[in-house]
Design brief:
Elements (H helix, E strand, L loop, with lengths): L1 H12 L15 H11 L3 E9 L8 E8 L5 E7 L4 E6 L3 H4 L3 H6 L1
Antiparallel strand pairs: 1-2, 2-3, 3-4
């Protein structure tokens, strides 16, 4: 239930315009979810807007938990301004990674 609440909260944030210091707006969370599922096979089970780390170079990130097809959990962090994955962690990362052909087929 906690994961569902986190996901619903993050989805609600998609409708709140957040601006970076340069005035750039945050990516819609549904597009950020597409970025994750285009790159990794699995299902997003949790999401939140989190503080960015210094090495990520952005003030906030979308922080997703992805349940892979093998049952592993990956943590995927997405830059909400540039629509790119800035960090991935978890077991089964290599197995969950989609190749270009798999992404095109879906």
């Amino acid at each position: 239930m906690r994961h569902l609440a986190s996901l619903l909260f993050a989805m609600a944030l998609a409708f709140v315009p957040v601006l970076s210091a340069s005035g750039q707006s945050v990516l819609d969370i549904t597009r950020a979810m597409d970025v994750v599922t285009e790159r990794f096979a699995g299902r997003i089970v949790a999401a939140e807007l989190a503080d960015g780390r210094p090495e990520e170079g952005v003030p906030v990130v979308f922080d997703f938990r992805l349940l892979t097809e093998t049952g592993a959990i990956l943590r995927v962090r997405v830059d909400p301004f540039a629509s790119i994955i800035v960090d991935v962690d978890g077991y089964g990362l290599v197995e969950a990674r989609r190749t270009g052909r798999e992404s095109d087929a879906q």
